[in-house]
């Protein structure tokens, strides 16, 4: 009697690795389904028909391919110095901060914002709605609190406000020769915790900008600011604390994780230089018209303008999806023309 031989089919998971630096990587695990499954107590038949085996159910149309699952891992440090930890399982900024807080055993509300690939308070590297799959995260946490008195002796304070997407607004830019540039103790990166004693926790950047704009000219007001905790670079070089290589550039990966405003996340190609240039120009318009900078908001507006070729339809989409901002008509027209010209 001929002896039947069986061969086991092995399907190891496919792994795609994008190198972070010499020692760090972002790993995506995709688990394809097995070629076939066999009951553990079923003897191999080597192609012979099994009379006791039930007939297969006829297919009900073409079966959809299983969705590819990703387990995305990002590396993170606290900006003032810490060991490296891994963060995962997030689709929006709030969940990201929760993941970071859990990794470092700190309160979530201690995190002010994150920068990409630098521990410095560099607003050009500020985390917005997109993270390159190669990017290394640095979380800036609360440091000292200070109270600053400012005399509004002109219509424009010279501040640009942003927020962290989780309830904290902060100073992103201070214009030269402005009222705020002459105010001692006010720095880029400071969290605006209160104005005239009114707690601003949970307020968006445009709400804080509006509150500052509505302060009457000639009035003195107080700002309660929280500065990010400073690193002790003079005591211990960051290389000794396990920092990533300074040679890594922001957005170095060709793929990015985009955290959408509706709370979902998607992996997509990095925007082309042409698209990124237009998004940056929209951000400039936001600063000029509203006094804020927000890359994810600017990206959202770019896509809305691209989808709506008529200016009236674009304005309607903004009213429907971003009604809280109350954008001026001139701003809406400028953005639409910029994207579609």
What's the tally of helices?
6
**Envelope shape:** globular
Distance between the termini: 79 Å
Low-confidence sequence ranges: 1-51, 64-70, 234-253
As a percent range, the share of helical residues equals: 10-25%
Report the mean per-residue pLDDT as an integer.
77
- Per DSSP E runs of 2 or more residues, the count of β-strands stands at 14
Gyration radius (Cα, Å) is 26 Å
Strand content: 15-25%
Largest sheet: 7 strands, mixed
H-E string: EEEEHEEEEEEEHEEEHHHH
Instruction: Give the class from helix and strand content and strand pairing.
Output: alpha+beta
List keywords for this structure.
7-stranded mixed beta sheet, single chain, globular, 341 residues, alpha+beta, 6 helices, 3-stranded antiparallel beta sheet, 22% helix, disordered N terminus
Folded structure, characterized:
This protein is of the alpha+beta class and 341 residues long. The protein is built from 6 helices and 14 strands. The strands form 4 sheets. Strands 3, 4, 5, 7, 10, 11 and 12 form a 7-stranded mixed beta sheet that branches. A hairpin with a 6-residue loop joins strand 3 (74-78) and strand 4. Mean pLDDT is 77; it is low at 1-51, 64-70 and 234-253.
Topology:
Elements lengths: L13 E6 L5 E6 L43 E5 L6 E3 L5 H12 L6 E6 L13 E3 L4 E15 L7 E5 L5 E6 L16 E5 L2 E2 L5 H9 L6 E9 L26 E5 L5 E5 L3 H17 L5 H13 L3 H11 L7 H12 L1
Parallel strand pairs: 3-7
Antiparallel strand pairs: 1-2, 3-4, 5-7, 6-13, 7-12, 8-9, 10-11, 10-12, 13-14
């Amino acid at each position: 009697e001929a002896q039947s031989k069986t061969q086991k089919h092995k399907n190891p998971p496919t792994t795609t690795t994008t190198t972070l630096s010499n020692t760090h990587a972002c790993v995506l695990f995709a688990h394809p389904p097995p070629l076939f499954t066999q009951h553990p107590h079923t003897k191999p038949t080597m192609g012979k028909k099994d009379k006791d085996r039930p007939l297969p159910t006829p297919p009900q149309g073409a079966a959809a391919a299983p969705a590819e699952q990703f387990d995305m891992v990002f590396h993170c440090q606290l900006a003032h110095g810490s060991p490296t930890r891994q963060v995962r399982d997030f689709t929006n900024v709030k969940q990201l901060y929760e993941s970071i807080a859990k990794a470092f055993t700190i309160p979530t509300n201690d995190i002010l914002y994150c920068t990409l690939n630098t521990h410095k308070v560099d607003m050009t590297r500020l985390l917005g709605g997109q993270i390159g799959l190669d990017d290394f995260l640095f979380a800036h946490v609360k440091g000292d609190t200070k109270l600053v008195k400012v005399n509004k002796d002109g219509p424009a304070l010279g501040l640009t406000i942003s927020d962290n997407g989780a309830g904290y607004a902060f100073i992103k830019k201070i214009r030269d020769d402005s009222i705020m540039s002459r105010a001692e103790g006010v720095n880029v990166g400071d969290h605006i915790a209160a104005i005239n004693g009114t707690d601003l926790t949970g307020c968006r950047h445009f709400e804080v900008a509006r509150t500052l704009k509505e302060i009457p000219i000639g009035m003195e007001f107080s700002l309660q600011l929280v500065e990010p905790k400073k690193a002790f670079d003079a005591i211990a070089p960051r290389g000794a604390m396990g920092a990533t290589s300074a040679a890594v550039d922001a957005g170095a990966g060709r793929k990015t994780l985009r955290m959408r405003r509706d709370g979902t996340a998607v992996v997509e190609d990095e925007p082309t230089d042409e698209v990124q240039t237009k998004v940056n120009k929209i951000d400039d318009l936001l600063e000029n018209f509203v006094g804020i900078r927000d890359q994810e908001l600017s990206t959202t507006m770019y896509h809305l303008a691209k989808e709506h070729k008529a200016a009236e339809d674009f304005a309607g989409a903004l009213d429907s999806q971003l009604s809280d901002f109350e954008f001026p008509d001139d701003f809406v027209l400028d953005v639409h023309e910029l994207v579609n010209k």
